[in-house]
Amino acid sequence: MKDEDDDDSGDGRVRLDKWLWAARFFKTRSLAAEEAAKGRVQVNGQAAKASRELHEGDTVALRQGQVPRTVVVRRLANVRGPAPVAQALYEETADSLALRSRLAEQQRLAAEPALAIEQGRPTKRDRRKLAEWERWSATAETPRRGR
Q: Taking the CB of residue 133, how many other CB atoms lie within 10 A of it?
């Protein structure tokens, strides 16, 4: 009979990319492996490859988009499950939570740079006017004499 905890890695060994995918930090395992290959994922303060084995109690530092996160591994899993199960696989550190809330507050208060642009991409009509203006601008050549 299969126990509820058997869906974890049976021998206590899980690859980093599989765990990141199972814990729902990345949408696919290949994205998790790619981030690890680029050196954007650290385990216990050291850059880690996707094939690194994780153990309970390891500290994993990563970026989700622009948001840095630091989590402590609480359980190991090879399979991706529902979100509540995935959230039980790790515990985010207090420093990481404070940093995330501070960044969210800064983003909420700061003006979006794109809003400073008064005009966006020109419309088809604008491009036609610009092309016509360039065609009839002061670049008219002087007529040739002689020949």
A: 9
